[in-house]
Every structure is written in structure tokens, then in C-alpha cells.
């Protein structure tokens, strides 16, 4: 069963990847698995979401870690550890 989620990017990630995009997953996955999937999506994704970059993530507007499971219709956001106003 596939699920659709919304991705949001903030601060420098927004400059590299845009405000966000939709993603269809073939099965429920963790935040870390989605990040790994996105790394393969394009060169821009690979640079913006590289494992060498410290990033924070939020699922449905609550901070989470990469082990958090994602459910259908979720909103997953990625952003640098410190963002300006």
C-alpha cells in the first residue's frame, strides 16, 4: 500500500530545493529512510540533504528524529539546526 506525504524545506534548503514537494512511498518508512531516498532524487537533493550536513526534521510540525515512522498524509520538514527569523 503506497502512502503520500508532503515535504517542506526551510532556510538554505528552501533556496536549494524550493518550498516543498509531494512524495509517494511504497510503504511506511522512517524519516531517515525518506532522507536516504531523497538523496538519490537529484544532484540538488544529494547536496542539500547530504549525510555530512547537520539537519533537523519535524513530522507534522513536531521535532522528531530519523527513527520516527511516517504515516500517510504526513508533513515532513527538513531545516538546518539554526534558522533565522
Question: Would you give an account of this structure?
Answer:
The protein is an alpha+beta fold. The chain has one domain: Beta-grasp domain (Ubiquitin-like (UB roll), Roll), CATH 3.10.20.30. Helix content is 25%, strand content 29%. It has three helices and five strands. The protein has helices at 12-17, 31-39, 43-48, and strands at 3-9, 20-25, 56-59, 62-64, 75-79. Strands 2-1-5-3-4 form a five-stranded mixed sheet. Strand 3 (56-59) and strand 4 (62-64) form a beta hairpin. The protein is globular. The termini are far apart. The model has no long low-confidence stretch (mean pLDDT 94).
Task: Provide a brief overview of the structure.
The protein is α+β, with helices and mostly antiparallel strands. The chain is built from three helices and five strands; from the N terminus they run βαβααβββ.
Keywords:
85 residues; alpha+beta; Ubiquitin-like (UB roll); five-stranded mixed beta sheet; ThiS/MoaD-like; Beta-grasp_dom_sf; Molybdopterin synthase sulfur carrier subunit; Mopterin_synth/thiamin_S_b
Amino acid at each position: 500500500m503506497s502512502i503520500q506525504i508532503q515535504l517542506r524545506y526551510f532556510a538554505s534548503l528552501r533556496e536549494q530545493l524550493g518550498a516543498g514537494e509531494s512524495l509517494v512511498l511504497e510503504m511506511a518508512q522512517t524519516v531517515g529512510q525518506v532522507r536516504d531516498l531523497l538523496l538519490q532524487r537529484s544532484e540538488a537533493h544529494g547536496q542539500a540533504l547530504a549525510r555530512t550536513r547537520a539537519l533537523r526534521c519535524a513530522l507534522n510540525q513536531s521535532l522528531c528524529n530519523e527513527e520516527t515512522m511516517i504515516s500517510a498524509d504526513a508533513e515532513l520538514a527538513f531545516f538546518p539546526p539554526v534558522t533565522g527569523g
